[in-house]
């Protein structure tokens, strides 16, 4: 029996149906990895294409393209986000920025020190932002972003001090 285009049609259709699920499986697996490390599942947007976690805890999340998501404020995700993952922590983050008062500040660390407190700490370099863990239960939709990283706006202002009622200074 030889393969003809007509006889391969069911295989092609099956592949086309399963392709969208590949990204969903990665997204779901990332949720499981984050939860097993004491972090909320919604730290990364729904547009995650793939991720790698090596033996040292180095996490690399691939989004395909840069995008903007809405949590409490807007968050910029580069096409690849890297961090050191340990229990309750994403440290030395690279590829994620948060908008604060019209400025884009790089997110340095994300920490859940005490899950029973219901708080997550976002280190934006100049201050720590304390937010409710419930804001990160569900992954946001990430809108495509073209152009350069918004973190460039921060580098132009140097050591600007930023604080509000929800921020505590770095000690």
Automatic annotation (TrEMBL):
InterPro entries: At5g01610-like, DUF538. Pfam families: DUF538. SUPFAM superfamilies: At5g01610-like. Keywords: Signal. Residues 1-25 form the signal peptide. This is Transmembrane protein. It comes from Cajanus cajan (Pigeon pea).
């Amino acid at each position: 029996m030889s393969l003809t285009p007509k006889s391969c049609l069911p295989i092609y259709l099956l592949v086309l149906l399963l392709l969208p699920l590949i990204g969903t499986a990665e997204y779901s697996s990332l949720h499981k990895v984050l939860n097993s490390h004491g972090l909320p599942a919604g730290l990364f947007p729904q547009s995650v294409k793939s991720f790698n976690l090596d033996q040292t805890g180095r996490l690399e999340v691939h989004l395909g393209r840069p995008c903007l998501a809405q949590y409490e404020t807007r968050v910029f995700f580069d096409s690849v986000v890297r961090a050191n993952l340990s229990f309750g922590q994403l440290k030395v983050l690279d590829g994620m920025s948060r908008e604060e008062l019209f400025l884009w500040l790089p997110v340095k660390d994300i920490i859940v020190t005490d899950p029973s407190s219901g708080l997550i700490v976002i280190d934006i370099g100049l201050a720590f932002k304390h937010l409710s863990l419930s804001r990160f239960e569900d992954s946001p939709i990430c809108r495509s972003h073209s152009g350069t990283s918004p973190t460039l706006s921060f580098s132009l202002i140097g050591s600007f001090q930023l604080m509000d009622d929800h921020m505590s200074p770095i000690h």
